[in-house]
Design goal:
318 residues, six-stranded mixed sheet, alpha+beta
């Protein structure tokens, strides 16, 4: 399969993808890396032909060209958004972006006999927390009482009934402070007294806090392999200060591992980064699953061989 390339679809600044590409290179696997966001800037050339024989054609960047029908697998991670060239008016820019998304994006999502980790259409279907919570409950995960609402009365009632309660964003978006620096919306405990009419402005997710939470647990599933790490931090959201975080390998039960695999199969995914809260009795509260979650830093901290497992999945598609 030496002439069958692996396509890595991600933005330029992605150290996690860098590690996988380096591992595939050590194995002699041809890799093309591209970011669809470069398409309208002229960094990518596409020529896809369709006919009685199906798809054929080429995809080229400044450094490499591949035959579309020969791509063995796609590692679809964190591509940047399509952006129109500078100088187009608003209407033309909107048209150009739509054609690129449905043209190049459509080709990248419909390569024949190709393994996707993960398929972009499956990612879109999965990346809604309401669907994640429903699937997790059906598959036997321990799901905390959760409310998604824009009703002040319901939010106050939920906080009174379920407290202590945490707030979590339904989707991570880019925020910048007044000084221009990036800002993050941390998971935090809700003070019921702060709930006011601003609730009506949009949808919010409130969830019962894990009782006497001991630690976080990240279970990264790659194909059928499960890699679990315990994350200890003094903060409710460990991302607030990585310097205060410690890591250790976590012994995940067969029941939880099987449930993780079944969850991914339900959404047609081959990779997922699951986040849980650990209770004193050793049970796990399901928080969410990220279909393009970070994992390289956990490998560096624990020695769990996730880069090799990802390369195995992309290299061997039978």
């Amino acid at each position: 399969m030496a002439d069958q390339p692996v396509l890595v679809v991600t933005r330029l600044d992605d150290p996690t993808a860098d590690a996988v590409i380096s591992e595939l290179g050590r194995r002699g696997v041809t890799v093309m890396r591209l970011d669809p966001g470069d398409f309208l800037a002229g960094g990518i050339e596409l020529a896809a032909r369709y006919g009685p024989g199906g798809l054929s054609g080429t995809l080229s960047t400044s450094s490499r060209a591949v035959r579309l029908e020969q791509v063995r697998s796609v590692y679809y991670r964190r591509p940047s958004e399509y952006a129109a060239p500078v100088g187009l008016d608003e209407q033309d820019a909107r048209f150009a972006v739509a054609q690129a998304r449905y043209g190049l994006g459509g080709v990248l999502a419909a390569l024949p006999d190709c393994r996707y980790v993960n398929h972009p259409w499956h990612i879109m279907r999965h990346d809604h927390k309401p669907g994640q919570l429903a699937a997790a409950a059906q598959l036997g995960f321990q799901v905390l009482p959760t409310l998604i609402t824009n009703s002040l009365a319901e939010a106050r009632r939920f906080a009174a009934e379920q407290g202590p309660v945490v707030y979590k964003p339904l989707r991570i978006t880019t925020f910048r402070r007044h000084d221009g620096h990036a800002a993050t919306v941390w998971i935090h405990l809700v003070d019921p007294g702060e709930l006011d009419e601003r609730i009506a402005a949009t949808a919010h997710l409130f969830q019962t806090a894990t009782p006497d939470k001991v630690a976080d647990v990240r279970i990264t599933v790659i194909g059928t392999e499960c890699f679990a790490a315990r994350i200890d931090s003094p903060h409710l959201d460990f991302r607030q200060n990585y310097e205060q975080v410690t890591y250790s390998v976590f012994d995940v039960s067969a029941q939880v591992a099987d449930a993780c695999r079944a969850y991914l199969a339900r959404f047609g995914l081959l990779f997922g980064a699951f986040d849980f809260g650990l209770r004193p009795d050793g049970s796990l509260d399901f928080y969410e699953c990220n279909s393009a979650g970070q994992w390289l830093w956990l490998e560096e901290e624990t020695g769990l061989p996730m880069t090799a497992a990802l390369a195995d999945l992309l290299e061997t598609t039978t």
